[in-house]
Amino acid sequence: MMNLKGNPELTPKNLMRPLKNYGIACMSMGFLIEETAPVVWRGLMVMSAVEKLLRQVDWGQLDYLVIDMPPGTGDVQLSVSQNIPITGAVIISTPQDVALLDARKGAEMFRKVHVPVLGLIQNMSVFQCPKCKHETHIFGADGVRDLAETLGLDILGDIPLHVNIRETCDSGQPVVISQPQSDAAKAYLKIAKEIVRRLPVPPA
Q: What is the pLDDT of residues 11-58, one digit of tens each?
């Protein structure tokens, strides 16, 4: 999605240098293993990998560190929430019932480990036909909004189900870079502003 491939270089202090594009430093286990190799890790192996990505990377001076985690409440989520100070969590879900179950569990888990939940994002919220412009809620209309209301949380925004998002991600040119004036890009930028607005002001 960020048009990045290859193995990270090492600094003289034996720290990995994150790969960079569009002004963003990225680090992933995908950079450290074969492209087609599955990552089937549990327990201590997961904790070791998380530690490696957090502590053995020369992140330099960052504005924000964003950690993209898989759905659910497994070893990755617990390892991260228990081993590093987290300013806030954002829950992303499609509006369908099956996905909302995981989203609710995730929100409840972060609350139990005293991580503030900044809000929810409704992904694939609506599909607009490119020919007739008719809108269809393929995964349901307001599932995430209803969950947010139940949990007493904010909705940070909606991301549409749009072919441009998929195409630009596959080509490694995020829609906010390649089509900054599009409705899809504006949806992402609005969400980013809502998240930043809820974070504490960093020290000068």
A: 999 999 999 999 999 999 888 888 777 777 666 777 788 888 888 999
Q: How far apart are CA 52 and CA 169, in angstroms?
A: 26
Let me know: does 46 contact 81? Beta carbons within 8 Å: no
**Which among 72, 124, 136, 70 has a CA at the least distance from the CA of 94?**
124
* DSSP code at position 53: H
Strands 135-136 and 117-128: antiparallel
Give this prediction's pTM: 0.89
**8-state DSSP, 30:** G
Q: Identify the DSSP state of 10.
A: B
Tokens at 159, concatenated: 């991301």
Within 13 Å and on the Cβ side, how many CA atoms surround 40? 3
Residue/partner pairs of 128-135 with CB below 8 Å, 24 or more apart: 128/160, 128/162, 130/163
The set of residues, in sequence order, having a beta carbon less than 8 Å from that of 80 and lying 6+ positions away, is 50, 67, 69, 86
Q: Considering only CA atoms, which of 186, 185, 181, 187 is closest in space to residue 168? A: 185
Cα distance between residue 53 and residue 122, in whole Å: 28
The pair of three-digit structure tokens given for residue 154, joined into one six-digit string: 């904010």
